[in-house]
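Study the following:
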Amino acid sequence: DPRLRVLVYDFPQMTGLTLSTAFLARLQNAFKGIVVGVKNSSGDWPAMEAATKEMPGFQVFAGSERFLLPTLRAGGPGCISATANVTVRALAALMQHWRDPGADARQEEITRTRLMLQQYPAVPALKEIMAHATGRAEWCRLRPPLVNLAQDDVQRLIAQAERAGLVEAVRTAV
């Protein structure tokens, strides 16, 4: 189908494989107009930057908002991140103002928030924040093998999320 577009997911921590820029270029050339980009969750900024610079027109998305500003500055389109479910306001502000003088400070705040969230298993933590912000306990339903956070972790997470402004951001977004 000529409408098909594929973003390759580079996640070596899960696959045990690292996708080189040369390999991505081969995919792009073999499947012209179909393989159009990559979500790079490796955490390897030099690899993301190399793909962005060496493959004009190939969309290199950072897999973490920790790399949003560098990705934008290198010519990439942005990031694809699960934690964007609760950090969307800050990410949108950075996307809109990434060329402004305060962009580095915005990125530092986003990075601090991401590192705070990384203290917990991602999906259960995000669902706890959503449940708290919306007052809807059904957000906390998980499918195996995922398990809910321990109650003391939930309390600590919610306190941190409140201080970071995530709960209010979710409340105003839904």
Summary: The chain is about 55% helix and 10% strand.
